[in-house]
Amino acid sequence: MTCAITLSGCSMDLSRLTDTEFLESLVWERSADPVLKSAASTGDLDGVRAALLTSFQSYATGHESSLGLGVRTLWSQAAFPEETDLGKLLTKIGGLRTTVRTDKPRATNKAPKTLAQRIEPLIRRLSAENDSPPQSASLFSFLASVETLALAGARLRPEQTWRLWRHALCQIASLISPPVNEHDFDPAVPFDVQLIEQGELPFVAGIVFRDVSGASNLLKSGRKVLCRSLEKNSDTDGTPRAEIIERLPLWLASLIRATLMAKHFRVDLWTAEQEETLKSVVERAIPLCRPDGKAVFSHGLSLESLPVLIAAAELFNLPEIGPEGSYLESVKRAVTGKTPRRVRHDGVVTMPSNQSDWARFALLRSDWSVEADSVAVAHHRRFPQLDVMAAGKPLIHGDWTLDLRLGDAVVEMAEEWSCVCWQSDPDADYIELQMCGPGKMRVERIIMLSRKERFLLLADSISGVQQERIEYRATLPLAEDILVRLDTPTREAQLTMKGLKVRAFPLAVVQDRILSTPHEFSATNKKLTLQQVAHGEGLFAPLVFDWHPDRTRADAAWRSLTVTEDGRVVPPDIAAGHRLKLGELQLLVFRSLKTTGESRAVLGHHTNNETVIAHFDKKGNVHPILLVEPA
Fold this sequence. Notes:
The chain has 631 residues and is of the alpha+beta class. Helix 5 (84-93) packs antiparallel against helix 6 and helix 13 runs antiparallel to helix 14. It is elongated, with a radius of gyration of 30 Å. The model is unreliable at 63-67, 98-103 and 129-135 (pLDDT under 50).
């Protein structure tokens, strides 16, 4: 025997062994198939091929073929950009269309190729002896190898199954290392790639090569990493941790692929509680899929979340008449250019919004349609990240930055923000984030999305300053393909894209451009910038976005309001009120920056609340949309 080949690894270059030498070097599990073990011990290659084919046939159900061979591996394509050629080959084998269908008739004089014929180029690519890609590329290749074995091993030619089986087994010895402590992971390697290497591949390899010695240990170690990753990165209600949101589809891809593989081979992966958690994660991830099928916060990555979510919804039997299943179906139709179906409910209206303090993430969303308004908020870093959709179209995407100077000193921002208020009701979703500065200074970031009136309020509230000059500057990055026009007579900004017009109003900045002001509201095709200056104990900087189709041409007027307390005027560094009149909409935005225990009045409305967002009718009656009491 040249060496002992196990799933614990082998230091020898196994590609140099003949098939007979390879078979004789294999070490088997006690529970190994006796027919396979006997054929290998005598170097009977034909017997081994037949035994492998029989083994894969015993698990074949016929269901997997509907998914398209190679499709599951492609869920992780974006994590391995260097594997473009293999991705194209998998796309072709899986029958996925990469070009727009033309009207040219198909050739009818050629007999259709069998699966074995169609898959031969893929097997040649995967098992090429001279192919020595880097570590990260090999992971993607190995994913393709085990998926092909699992889903097509029963329908390939025996020599194809053997060639792929042997090559994948050799890859295990070189790729899969002993489990490491999570603190020892290389921070330069994305967490989803680490999950593939340390969790999914060991687990799946332990299943596919269950007869080879070391398979049971490999399966256990892979399962442990998968379970730990699920528990570590999701809240009890399934909300994904903010740190993984940017690559959520890639993380979810490993979990769903491993679950499907365990189901196919009838192996336990999750406990009942863990499986319920994973189902909840899928339900939380579905409304984070944009109408174009891509994921929120996918900076620089073309993350197609729709395919993995469709497979996950089918796995957990999410009904199409339910909100999540119905939304996925609408996205599928929108991606293919079809008219979305009307949103249907199963009799129980499930709110699409959710928030988690632990996950440091929130989703504000108007409804379950593909034309919904939504704001995804991740607040685990120095600046909160926003992903804003207006009528189903991307509006704001990236860091909501903040530069703050008190006197001559620059305020250093904290590394993360905490959620101090969350409200969700049929009128609006509201979240308030807080960052504490030096002394008693606080910065609160306010986000309110109207469910009925198609407008969004973003505001910063700065309080607890010790009578200093406050210089404030915030920026909002705009999504691609947005054209910006600044109104000439006023300081309104108009953001236009195909089929949508959004109007932005800086309520604390004087409306008319001819009037001088130390404040500034500027806009380019890349970002919006709001700058305000104040002297005193605080500052309030509200910005309203409106995209209601009935108000795109309506006259706009806004101004700052007088706030009183016990008949005395309160300065704007203590409490600030603003009014926006836009067509039929008359909006009141009030914020108390310092409380005294006394009620305050604005536009005749008396309140003890810290925040009031309301609309009022022609008679001046105030109808609150949202009220926030002092902490």
